[in-house]
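re: that complex we talked abt at group meeting.

here r the seqs, copy pasted straight from the sheet so there may be weird spacing, ignore it
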Amino acid sequence: MRIGELAQKSGLTTSRIRFYERIGLLKAVDRRLNGYRTYSSQAVTILGLITTAQRAGFTLDEIRALLPSDLTHWDHAALTGALTRKVADIEALQVRLGQSKAQLLRLIEDIQARPEDMDCAANARRVLTNVLAKHTEDLTVTSDDVRLPDRTDRPLSLKPGAGRKVVSR
Amino acid sequence: MRIGELAQKSGLTTSRIRFYERIGLLKAVDRRLNGYRTYSSQAVTILGLITTAQRAGFTLDEIRALLPSDLTHWDHAALTGALTRKVADIEALQVRLGQSKAQLLRLIEDIQARPEDMDCAANARRVLTNVLAKHTEDLTVTSDDVRLPDRTDRPLSLKPGAGRKVVSR
DNA sequence: GCTAACGTTGAACATAAGTTCAGCGTCAAG
DNA sequence: CTTGACGCTGAACTTATGTTCAACGTTAGC
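got the structure back, here u go
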């Protein structure tokens, strides 16, 4: 089939399919004499796998490292290893999400719990102090701490090495 | 204080502080006659708030929209609204994380549950079919469905509008 | 033979949140 | 007076995941 049909069958755009080829992720492609790409029905499966893996939190680089050229011949060890690590990543993120959610809920309550006799400015200071309490602790500790406190100070997202970043320098 | 001291006190880099100023996020800055930036101790608080909000999943744009120029004068309604929406975003992501994790665990089990009498190729096909089952359903349904199935087909991350994307076109 | 739909390419653009760099100015100590 | 640390600017670069565009080639139907 040509690229348009593959796009339709896989639900991806043609630009995305060409992009995957360019970065070496989709190698199952041939060329007709006129230069048109041709795909077998395997390509649909591969694209399905790619988007499924993406949904599960794998980057395209990770997927490329795991996807074999022959779909019937996987690297079992690497695969289950990567899957297990991804589960751990997810669990770590779940923990952080729970903490963030709890902090937000506490904050919402705290804002609404302004004592009748307190003016807004004072309330703001009170809430502000509470919000920054944990962070400031971190800071004062960090300032002459040797082991970094695991970098929880970054946006919430499921990135490959989200936990243990080794700054090679 | 000058920028270096603020960087040290806030734990951010000077480039990051200048960047925040450039994008209009940190307005609490004055200039000496020599061109050097000067900050009050409020700036430390503001930077602390910014990184705390970032950790909780707010983008810099969102933070800019919520941060008042006067820390004692917040927009209560906008703030609690944003906080509540962020909690909802987190809950949505928690659900997706749970699903992804469950799928990965199922997949790991499935890979290891290869029947003794089945060769690797056949096992690969079996597992592959299972993995893609849900996705293929989605696809066949989507093809002539009116309401989009809520775009769960994208990487896991906590982005502002992660749930309900309105394509204005 | 024309037109519409499809295909090709390379390059540029988009986003978010910064970092890095070159080239220059300022300031305090020795 | 020199040196080193600190500061300034604007521009370019980074990462990941694509999209968009212009300019051109191919093919099928009429």
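couple things i noticed - The beta strands of chain A are 30-31, 37-38. Residues 13, 15-16, 19-20, 23, 34-36, 54, 59-61 of chain A lie near DNA strand D (CB under 10 Å from a C1').
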